Amino acid sequence: MNSQELGQIMVEFNRSGELGKLLDEHYAEDAVSVEAMDMGRGREAVGLDAIRAKHAWWEETMIMHSMEVEGPFPHGDDRFALIFESDVEVKGLGIRKKGREVALYHMRGGKIVREEFFYSMV
């Protein structure tokens, strides 16, 4: 599977919201997820279980009002980027923000081995 193909699969899974299935089928066991900023849990989640826990925390903490994904933007055979635009609310606090971020995915053997998120909290 090349970066265009895996990138398109990522787009489809993100649009459908089936992120658990996405992790199970398309992430390596030793994958690393890196956030631009530490939100109290560290910037890096190392290993598939840690990435699943990060996703669970997000779902417990946030309400996703809308999310759009653009791409993929391939970079050779081993990387691609996606652009996300979202409207999220912190549960229980009523704080709602719209944001835009770039996600860079590195792949090996047809699976995601590293994801890096770029965004501003300004």
From TrEMBL:
Listed InterPro entries: NTF2-like_dom_sf, SnoaL_5
> What's a Pfam family this protein contains?
SnoaL_5
Please list the residue ranges annotated as the SnoaL-like domain.
Answer: 2-119
Name the record gives this protein: SnoaL-like domain-containing protein
| Provenance organism | Saltatorellus ferox
Identify the taxonomic lineage of the organism of origin. Bacteria, Pseudomonadati, Planctomycetota, Planctomycetia, Planctomycetia incertae sedis
